[in-house]
Write a structure and sequence with these properties.
Bound molecules: pyridoxal-5'-phosphate
Number of helices: 11
Oligomer: single chain
Helix content: 25-40%
Strand content: 15-25%
Largest sheet: 9 strands, mixed
Shape: elongated
Distance between the termini: 28 Å
CATH class of the largest domain: Alpha Beta
CATH topology of the largest domain: TIM Barrel
């Protein structure tokens, strides 16, 4: 497949038609990523639930739906959107973090299967929904994830039920609590499958305490490439390891995965325009018409995102800090070498398809960016 991200003429054409800042998503790349997962996991009894928090645009959700995926939702509005797009309730799983009882009620009343992340919710479930089976989000006490802010399975994390609360779980099972599945998600951008495997060891060990479960949801964490020389997670080796765990369990079990980033990160770019190139004491700044109100990952998670000057194909480079318009520290890249930048140039920020628009805001009362989808049926503006 020709990489559409190299099609500078197309990208510039999109900025002329729709102006900047604009997120551009490529359906072909999403499908390529789905295919990669399906190929790696083909021998497993598995299902994929796209973590819609990564990019909840209805048109992106439709692509997932058309390709047979389910979704993982984390809020009432995400559930509502998934239902509106056409996902059957059986294709939606709900993994909220510290929800109110009303939020749980919303899901239970619609028979959306829910992963409960605290034993403190068990009384609510037993008293109000005694016949409904729940999943348990387990915290395996495994410190992995690209950085501290996206590590969610360690001893100090708010997420999940610590594995050492098994006795509490058993007490509630005796009282009639129905548990049909286990879940974990120990972090994003996990570097190796061996790191993920440490969590898997814990959850499969935990699963032995149950007579029969329908599935184990292994969450996600699948790392993507952000720059040349970067690695993606070795999915096939990971799948083989999971299979060995399934084989060793005394009862048959299905597996669920909840990828977000893996499916949409590389499929999206943010195109921004240079408002000004200004000289600081020592540094040169490329000031663009965007900021962390559009794309917060570089500032919040310190993530590296490749930036390309689409308006200048020269191979010579100069060093810039690429900064935004907010009255804040909103630096997209420090000391980055780009082909020489001038006012009006279009810069492409890569790997912006996940946690880009979905984490955007109207801070400083500035508008949100537009979103455009490039697919077989053409190029269109997509409403969020
Ligand atoms: C419960 C849960 N599942 C899945 C994901 C998706 O993770 P990723 O985007 O790394 O694939 C997240 C991300 O935060 C999550 O919290």
């Amino acid at each position: 497949m020709k990489n559409p991200l190299n099609d500078t003429d197309l990208l510039i054409k999109i900025t002329k038609k729709y102006s900047t800042p604009v997120y551009v998503y490529f359906e072909d790349i999403i499908k390529r990523q789905i295919h990669k997962l399906q190929t790696a996991f083909q021998k497993l009894p598995y299902e994929i639930h796209y973590a819609m928090k990564a990019n909840e645009n209805p048109e992106i959700l439709k692509i997932m739906h058309q390709n047979g995926l389910g979704v993982d939702a984390v809020s009432i509005n995400e559930i509502k959107r998934a239902l509106t797009v056409g996902f059957a309730k059986e294709k939606i799983i709900y993994t909220p973090s510290c929800p109110s009882e009303n939020e749980l009620k919303f899901a239970f009343d619609r028979q959306i299967h829910t992963h409960i992340g605290g034993t403190e919710y068990f009384d609510f479930v037993i008293n109000n929904y005694p016949d409904t089976a729940i999943g348990l989000r387990i915290n395996p006490g495994n410190h992995i994830g690209g950085n501290q802010k996206i590590a969610t399975g360690h001893n100090n994390s708010k997420f999940g039920i610590p594995v050492n609360q098994l006795d509490i779980i058993n007490k509630y099972i005796d009282k009639g609590l129905k548990i049909d599945s286990l879940h974990l998600h120990t972090g994003s951008d996990v570097k190796t499958w061996q790191d993920l495997a440490r969590s898997i060891d814990v959850i499969f060990e935990f699963a032995k305490h149950f007579n029969q479960l329908k599935y184990i949801d292994l969450g996600s964490g699948f790392k993507v490439k952000y720059q040349a020389g970067d690695t993606e997670i070795a999915l096939k080796a990971y799948a083989d390891y999971i299979q060995s765990k399934i084989d060793a369990l005394a009862y048959p079990i299905r597996i669920k995965f909840e990828p977000g980033k893996f499916l949409v990160s590389d499929a999206g770019v943010l195109l921004v325009k240079v408002n000004v190139v200004k000289q600081g004491f020592d540094k040169k700044f490329a000031g663009v018409n965007s900021g962390f109100h559009h794309f917060i990952r570089p500032m919040y998670y310190d993530t590296y995102h490749e930036i390309i000057n689409l308006s200048n194909k020269e191979s010579a480079t100069e060093k810039y800090d690429v900064v935004g318009v907010l009255c804040e520290e909103d630096t997209f890249a420090h000391n980055r070498y780009l082909s020489p930048v001038k006012k009006g140039d279009i810069l492409m920020i890569r790997n912006a398809g996940a946690y880009g628009y979905s984490m955007s805001s109207i801070y400083n009362l500035r508008d949100k960016p537009k979103e455009v989808l490039v697919s077989m049926s053409g190029i269109k503006l997509i409403e969020n």
